[in-house]
Amino acid sequence: MSSDLASRTLAGWVDPAVVFLGLFAPADDVFWLDAGPDASEGWSWVGSGIRSSAPRDVVAAGGGDRSAGPFRGGWVGWAGYDDAAARAGSPASVDQGPGELWLRVERMLGFDHAARRVVVFAAQEQLTAFMDEIEATEWRATSVPDPAPSVAVTARHEPSEYAALIEQCREEIREGRAYQLCLTTRFETSASVDPVRAYLRLRAATPAHHGGFIRSGGWALASASPEQFLAVEDGIVRTRPIKGTRPRSADPPRDAALAAELRGSEKEQAENVMIVDLMRNDLQRVCDAGSVAAERLLDVESYPAVHQLVSTVAGRLRAGTTVGELWEAAFPAGSMTGAPKLSAMQILHRLEGAPRGVFAGCFGWVGDDGGLDLAMVIRSIVVHPQGAYVGAGGGITWGSVAADEVAEVGIKARAPLAALGAELPPGW
């Protein structure tokens, strides 16, 4: 199905943050898929839509005339972890709020950061009026909001409880029921949260190539995700699992040493390769025989808060494979479950004893042409009518040291909590 949106290139450049705040921020049913502040490559998309069911029946392909960009109309939204785990055959907890939320795009702007051009999208009969509205808008420079007022957070697990769960994970691994388990927890506040201001703080502190903001129906996702889950273009599907983390240091020699330590860690390498093998197995279910391979293995990528160990797996989708079939094969992501996937999800359901919600799910866009780009919901804030939460976790192997894994959770949760105005609870 081709896009029903017409497009026109805007004269000149304007920053996506300025456009989002000037045109869309006050409204419901809006999105901002964000390549990051000062991005010099990739695309950002800012726009609005109407609530829709998930685009499962679209054939996953991607292609056509991409002169107006890779995403020229379709859907923007998220899919949470718990419903996906249940569809994969695992018991799953029930969380409050929408397990999935998708917007059918009605109008948007696409920002080509490399070419410094802005493409405007709307239905043909509405495009001229939308262009007039944009050109009549007086854009105002943006700034990072002041620190949020201090809010209290509670942890789903005390550090000692989480450490005990790590030991239970290691026992499951020793007994041969899993090779690796991604154990998670949650930090929550009942305070009222302005999701737009929280996202502006988050992206300023921890910019990422797959950041994003989606709001609808009293719920909002604000994410500084560094992990691309699935991308489809020209019939090729790619996934870029992250496993392995070290904190950044302000001291350059120490920072370089931390990156080298991550690169050389046998434990982190083993954890990453296990997930690569799992993702290869998942993609083989929907790809041509012999086409799935690791394009990159064990690369260190550095972000403002952390160094990460990243690999890339790709394959050619079988003709006619739908988005829903691809999700059924690959979601939930192996980087957020462990291996073997079904056994890992069953164990984690018992150990965590509570829903993950939107956290550990995915978000992004699905195009009318079957292209897609979805990121993992990590390093994220989920805002809801009763407050907000931040999920965090890490991969546990037989070689895991509980104190190190507890510290890693704190490293991952610190920036999203700070964007809310919260500090990590004691011990984390």
Kindly describe this structure.
With 428 residues, the protein is an alpha+beta fold. The protein has one domain (6-140, 157-420): 4-Layer Sandwich (Anthranilate synthase), CATH 3.60.120.10. Helix content is 30%, strand content 32%. It is built from 10 helices and 20 strands. It has helices at residues 16-24, 81-87, 124-136, 159-174, 195-205, 252-264, 266-284, 323-330, 341-352, 402-420, and strands at 6-10, 30-34, 43-52, 74-79, 100-112, 117-122, 154-155, 180-189, 210-216, 219-225, 228-233, 236-239, 242-247, 293-302, 306-316, 338-339, 362-367, 372-376, 380-384, 387-396. The protein has a 20-stranded antiparallel beta sheet that branches. β17 and β18 form a beta hairpin. α4 (159-174) packs antiparallel against α9 (341-352) and α5 packs across α10. It is globular and about 65 Å long. The chain starts with 5 loop residues before the first strand and ends in an 8-residue tail after the last helix. The model has no long low-confidence stretch (mean pLDDT 95).
Which helices and strands occur, and which strands form pairs?
Layout: E1 6-10, H1 16-24, E2 30-34, E3 43-52, E4 74-79, H2 81-87, E5 100-112, E6 117-122, H3 124-136, E7 154-155, H4 159-174, E8 180-189, H5 195-205, E9 210-216, E10 219-225, E11 228-233, E12 236-239, E13 242-247, H6 252-264, H7 266-284, E14 293-302, E15 306-316, H8 323-330, E16 338-339, H9 341-352, E17 362-367, E18 372-376, E19 380-384, E20 387-396, H10 402-420
Antiparallel strand pairs: 1-6, 2-3, 2-9, 3-5, 4-5, 4-17, 5-6, 7-8, 8-16, 8-20, 9-10, 10-19, 11-12, 11-18, 12-15, 13-15, 14-15, 17-18, 19-20
Helix pairs in contact: 4-9, 4-10, 5-10
